[in-house]
Write a structure and sequence with these properties.
Blueprint (H helix, E strand, L loop, with lengths): L1 H70 L5 H23 L5 H23 L2 H70 L10
Helix pairs in contact: 1-2, 1-4, 2-3, 3-4
Length: 209
Amino acid sequence: MKWTYSIRNKTTAAALLLTVFLIVLFNNLKERKNSVKISETIHSIFQDRLVVESYIFQHAEHLHKIEGVIDSENTEHADKQQQVAAVFSQIMELNESYLKTVLTEEEERVFGGFNNLCQKIGAKAEQGDLAAAKALAKEAALSLKTLSSIQVTEGASLMTDAKAMFSASTLSSQLESAILLVIALIIQALIFASNSLKVNRHPQNPILN
């Protein structure tokens, strides 16, 4: 019967519309999660890599300054100790800031060794053994190169993750658009089929022709 066919069309259209709603809802939730992850990744690249790289640069300057102070020929030994102590204080402040960032296992290990060397520099300078302090400063500077390499590697890895999430988000949006287009065409076909039934519901009496 034609009326049952019309009901079946309406039921199918309703099911398809529900499918559209669910697809849009699911994709929106997924997009929101991806946006949060991408935002967190970008924040990590800045806060945990670029900012840390600036800390490393400042560390290198401080260590170089310690060597320069110790090598100075026109400065008294006691003055050298005071100057090294002042620079050492700045280094330890940077170390506290560094530890507040997110560290990888390797970075935590290398930075732990660097921090120990810094502690020894301060101790040797306080004892007046500036030659030992200078040697420790050179050793600490080598650790900074390793820490800097870690920042580059981790930064590149985070960028790769961000690009992958962005690509997945783009693909998901394209797939959603394709599915919605197909469903829209099916619904349109069902509407035309229902309209055809309405037109042919009361055929004209051939006697009237």
